[in-house]
Amino acid sequence: MRPLDVKTIITRCGAGTKIVFTGDLNQIDTPYLDAKSNGLAYLISRFINEENFCYLNLKDSVRSRLAEQGTRLL
Questions:
Q1: N or C: which end of the chain has fewer CB within 10 A?
Q2: Residue 43 belongs to what domain range?
Q3: pLDDT tens by residue, 14-72
Protein backbone atom coordinates (compact mmCIF):
# COMPACT_ATOMS: atom_id res chain seq x y z
CA MET A 1 0.00 0.00 0.00
CA ARG A 2 1.26 3.45 -0.91
CA PRO A 3 1.25 6.43 1.46
CA LEU A 4 -1.42 7.99 -0.77
CA ASP A 5 -3.66 4.94 -0.23
CA VAL A 6 -3.39 5.33 3.55
CA LYS A 7 -4.25 9.02 3.28
CA THR A 8 -7.21 8.24 1.03
CA ILE A 9 -8.63 5.76 3.56
CA ILE A 10 -8.08 7.83 6.70
CA THR A 11 -9.29 11.16 5.33
CA ARG A 12 -12.65 9.64 4.40
CA CYS A 13 -13.48 8.21 7.84
CA GLY A 14 -16.50 9.43 9.73
CA ALA A 15 -17.02 10.03 13.44
CA GLY A 16 -16.55 6.92 15.57
CA THR A 17 -14.61 5.06 12.87
CA LYS A 18 -11.91 2.66 13.96
CA ILE A 19 -9.31 1.30 11.56
CA VAL A 20 -6.85 -1.53 12.00
CA PHE A 21 -3.92 -1.70 9.59
CA THR A 22 -1.79 -4.82 9.72
CA GLY A 23 1.30 -5.72 7.80
CA ASP A 24 4.92 -6.68 7.73
CA LEU A 25 7.18 -3.75 6.91
CA ASN A 26 9.69 -6.17 5.39
CA GLN A 27 7.28 -7.87 2.99
CA ILE A 28 6.97 -5.37 0.18
CA ASP A 29 5.97 -6.70 -3.22
CA THR A 30 6.47 -3.61 -5.32
CA PRO A 31 9.82 -2.29 -6.59
CA TYR A 32 8.72 1.31 -5.92
CA LEU A 33 8.31 0.95 -2.13
CA ASP A 34 10.44 -0.40 0.70
CA ALA A 35 10.21 -0.94 4.47
CA LYS A 36 10.58 2.80 5.08
CA SER A 37 8.48 4.25 2.25
CA ASN A 38 5.35 2.07 2.20
CA GLY A 39 1.95 3.19 3.46
CA LEU A 40 2.15 1.38 6.81
CA ALA A 41 5.54 2.93 7.62
CA TYR A 42 4.19 6.33 6.55
CA LEU A 43 1.16 5.94 8.81
CA ILE A 44 3.27 4.92 11.81
CA SER A 45 5.72 7.79 11.33
CA ARG A 46 2.93 10.39 11.14
CA PHE A 47 0.65 9.08 13.89
CA ILE A 48 3.13 7.60 16.40
CA ASN A 49 2.75 10.46 18.91
CA GLU A 50 -0.98 11.02 18.44
CA GLU A 51 -3.43 10.39 21.27
CA ASN A 52 -5.80 8.15 19.28
CA PHE A 53 -3.15 5.85 17.80
CA CYS A 54 -1.75 2.52 18.94
CA TYR A 55 1.16 0.68 17.34
CA LEU A 56 2.25 -2.87 18.13
CA ASN A 57 5.47 -4.33 16.80
CA LEU A 58 5.28 -8.11 17.00
CA LYS A 59 8.66 -9.81 16.80
CA ASP A 60 7.71 -13.47 16.39
CA SER A 61 6.42 -14.76 13.09
CA VAL A 62 3.60 -17.26 12.82
CA ARG A 63 4.48 -18.06 9.24
CA SER A 64 6.50 -20.98 8.03
CA ARG A 65 10.27 -21.13 8.11
CA LEU A 66 10.24 -20.94 4.30
CA ALA A 67 8.17 -17.72 4.39
CA GLU A 68 10.60 -16.20 6.90
CA GLN A 69 13.55 -17.15 4.70
CA GLY A 70 11.83 -15.62 1.69
CA THR A 71 11.32 -12.38 3.58
CA ARG A 72 14.98 -12.23 4.52
CA LEU A 73 16.53 -13.41 1.27
CA LEU A 74 14.34 -12.18 -1.58
A1: C
A2: 3-73
A3: 999 999 999 888 788 888 998 899 999 999 999 999 999 999 988 877 788 898 888 78
What region does 32 belong to: left with phi over 0, alpha with psi -120 to 50, or beta?
alpha
Distance CA(19)–CA(39), nearest Å, equals 14
Amino acid at site 23: G
Residue 34 backbone zone (phi > 0: left; psi -120 to 50: alpha; other: beta): beta
